[in-house]
Amino acid sequence: LFEIMSTEGWVNVMYAGSDATGMYLQPRRDANSWVAPFFAIYVFFSFMFLLNLSVGVIVDQFMELKRSGKSVMLTPSQQKWLETQKVLFSRKVFFTLTHLERLPPRRKRLYRAVSSKYFENAIMVAILINAIFMMLKVFPQPTSWWDEVLETMDAIFAFVFLVEFILKFYALQESYWKDVWNRFDFLCATISVSGLLLSLIPALAAVGEITAV
Predict the structure, then answer these.
(1) CA separation, residue 21 to residues 10, 26, 34, 37 (Å)
(2) For 14, which of 39, 89, 178, 190 could close a Cys bridge (C-beta 3.0–4.6 Å)?
(3) Which residues are CB-contacts of 18 (< 8 A; sequence separation ≥ 6)?
């Protein structure tokens, strides 16, 4: 019946059914020719409706899963492997510095220091504290010394970010520019130091404040 439903060689099956005379008996041509319409009706309803409807539902569900971004026909282990490959190929730099054994001892120690999680956490805390002080800039100022404290903290954090850039650049040198976050840190440090320098000039004080923000 499935062979007839798939319309693959169903005509031969119809001829065999029309020639059948009984179990273990020799077939005779057109012995049961009245069963031929059954094959045509069965093909019409099974192939046109049941099979096409089932395949259509399966394909529609497949396309719906594909549009939703879900993994189709993948086991959980295969899905984890695929996610691992995506993360692996999304990284442009795997090692910020190679051949550490060729580096001078001072540069090697500095590289280990700036690559440690403690250094990264300290810089992250400095960024958060700097953001908090930037949010404290209000108008009018609550006290006469308020703006002076904020300017002092801006200068301190600009110095911290400048020191971070100098240490990382000395440790990594040309490899420093391979990391996108390092380039972003350099841009932030340049803007902070530029705003600090511009604020020292009275005529450009307003420009320095805008650059610092």
Answers:
(1) 19, 7, 12, 17
(2) 39
(3) 30, 31, 32, 33, 35, 36
Average of per-residue pLDDT values in the chain? 77
Residue 48: C-alpha distances to residues 9, 41, 43, 56, 156 (Å): 16, 10, 7, 11, 78
Could you give the count of Cα atoms lying within 13 Å of 94 in the half-sphere of its Cβ? 3
* Amino acid present at 29: R
The one-letter code for the residue type at 72 is V
Taking the alpha carbons at both ends of the chain, their separation in whole angstroms is 77
Q: What is the DSSP letter of 202?
A: G
Structure tokens at 123: 């810089």
Residue with tokens 């046109």: 48
DSSP summary character for residue 175? G
Helices (H), 32-179: 36-45, 52-67, 76-90, 105-114, 117-135, 146-172
The pLDDT tens digits of the residues spanning 141-174 come to: 778 888 888 888 888 888 888 888 888 888 878 7
